[in-house]
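FAQ: What does the model actually see?

It sees only this:
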Amino acid sequence: MTPDARRGGGDPSEPATQPIPIDGHARPGGSRRPTRGWVVAGTAAVVALITALGLAACGIGSDEGGPGAGPAVDAASSEFWVDPSSSAARQVEQWRSEGRTEDAAQLEKIARQPVAIWPTGETGGVEGEVAGVVSQARDAGRTPVLVAYNVPNRDCGLYSSGGAENEDAYREWLGAFARGMGGNRAVVVLEPDALPQTLTNCEGEGEQEGREELLAEAVRTLSGAGGEVYIDAGNPGFVTDVGELADGLRTSGVQEAAGFALNVSNFMTTEQVREYGDRVSDAVGGARYVIDTSRNGRGAYEGPEQPTWCNPPGRALGTPPTRDTGSPRVAAFLWVKEPGDSDGDCRGAPPAGEFWPQYALDLARNTPGE
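And it is asked to produce this:
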């Protein structure tokens, strides 16, 4: 992971790419703080944009091919909530006002799609932020996708350091998060990196005793508030010992959760992730899982330019968010990472977590469809 644009601040950072195997070893990826958060969609410009988009079919899909890629799905047929004030939506409106109509049309491939919201790490603000997202989604007849990312000693004190001050503070934050949900259904991806880091990279990097039990508490708290909770389990290159990961998932409460999440903010193809996910599922009694397909349309970057994980060139959007995955084990394809958010200040990009319009545009241009 690369350093956050803002460490330990009120907004949580989001992992951009978790480790993938390179020369037989796992390498760290980037991280970011979300710059979107929750913004009430009340301006005329935003309303005009959503009207223009119409949540209509955009016909985007993955060019990875092979089994498990899933059909192209337009936003209108997805149950998940589309944030009308996402970074991509605002950029579309700006480019239209500047006459960049072709670029704006390309970026609609992202703006039309539901992307997960990463609420604040501040206990005093998370309840209202989550409540606002849930309210908008309920009014639209859609299901919101949220990410709970505030575990103490996040990232084992490494690049995405931060999180709640201690376990009690984390419990308070979870309680506020749950109150914001208010019993309304929401998909919740729980603590990206927390379990995989604990199982692989945390030795000597901070106290992790009891983290799995704390995750199990989070599962119960958020599930009781209406959450369809998926515990983050990394990706095929993160925890290679499936048995060890299964033990960690069981201790973290996977039996009480909806399942686990894979490929969050990573680029691995759906086919690769499904093969791994099915093995993990077998090891934990058939639990279902979700896959982040936001940027995996062409899989991971394997070119010569380094670092391979940071804003890699030539990538494409993956299968849009949908429940229609073609597999009984895969509960949904989700866009957990907002396409276009920088992995870090490499290749001319802004700091980790800032929306990089050019990168978002490149992802869209590399994706078939109107």
